[in-house]
Amino acid sequence: MDLLIILTYAGLCVVVFKAFRIPLTKWTVPTAILGGIVILGTLLMLMNYNHPYGKYAKEVFVSVPIVPAVKGIVVSVDAEPNTPLKKGDLLFRIDPKPFALTVAKTKAQLVEAEQAVKQTLAQMEAATARVKKAEADRDRTKQSFERYVAGNRAGGAKIFSEQEVENRRQLYLASEATLEAVRADELRARLAYESQIDGVNTRVAQLQAQLEAAEYDLERTEVRAPEIGFVTQVALRPGVMATNLPLRPAMVFIPNQRRQIAASFWQNSLSRMKPGFEAEVIFDAVPGHVFKGQLKSVLPAMSEGDIQATGNLVSASRVATHGRALGLIELEENLNDYGLPFGVQGKAAVYSDQFTHVSVMRRILLRMLGWINYIFPMK
After folding, report:
1. 52-61+257-306+315-379: which CATH topology?
2. Is the entire prediction scored with pTM above 0.85?
3. Which residues of 318-328 are buried (b: 16+ CB within 10 A; e: fewer)?
4. Does 318 have pLDDT greater than 70?
């Protein structure tokens, strides 16, 4: 852009010298050169500092890698490339048979577990009945033992001998042990039946969760659009093994989004780049047209200064790398009206509130660059 100013001044000097027939002497030529150096140097310094110019500007957009939630063989690709899609539209399908079989198997296990709960209830009721029977036997043998003991104390061996008393005592102890055993069986059956979470048997709840997960996997064999947008550069074909690894997406989805421009600027002009300042952008794809907009923000970090915890030391050459600040510009016009693809490139300028009269030069030069795009884009 500075070269355009110099060439314009040189052309103007030629026109003036020719039009007014000014002779080329040792006074006129140095005056024109020195005057150009002073005038253009002053204007260039004021313009470059107060109205930053981004030689490299490009539209930035977000893409969504489509990674299936399940792994399987692709059986159909339904999405047409570069065609608008609505949220929920089918992109591609993975062979659902293995997942359908898993659902059927889990359903059978769930029914079996529900039947087992009923059997556990019956076992608990049977154990309760055995406890009652054992308690009755224990009470009967206890009464018999107590009666034999009382008879032995009252009449001695004439009524009940010591051996008979001991036999009754052993029968009583055996019934007591039997009662403890059936009580343990009842407790085990009751614990198995009352093992619940939120009122549902734990085994049943576990299988219900497994069934829900299996149905979720079966549902995810149909991969759908996450929102409004389109897919592009579709290379997926039936027969390909689609994996759920994030490093290997099956498609790239471009969601609808507000289009914005990122331009790089020299750091010496950062004090003249505040959100809300007027900005203009030209694109190689739209020669001669200037898009008006507004500087939305200057990104608060630059990758040139980024370091992370690794086993390597930071090289001095990396510290010496010069970084440019990135400014985000939001345009007033909709680039979709011009049929421009995402990621178009161009150039940008930001106009600060300082020395606003000098911004006219920047505007003119930016438009001149836009006109040059009719012939070839300036890099």
Report:
1. Elongation Factor Tu (Ef-tu); domain 3 (2.40.30)
2. no
3. eeeeeeebbbb
4. yes
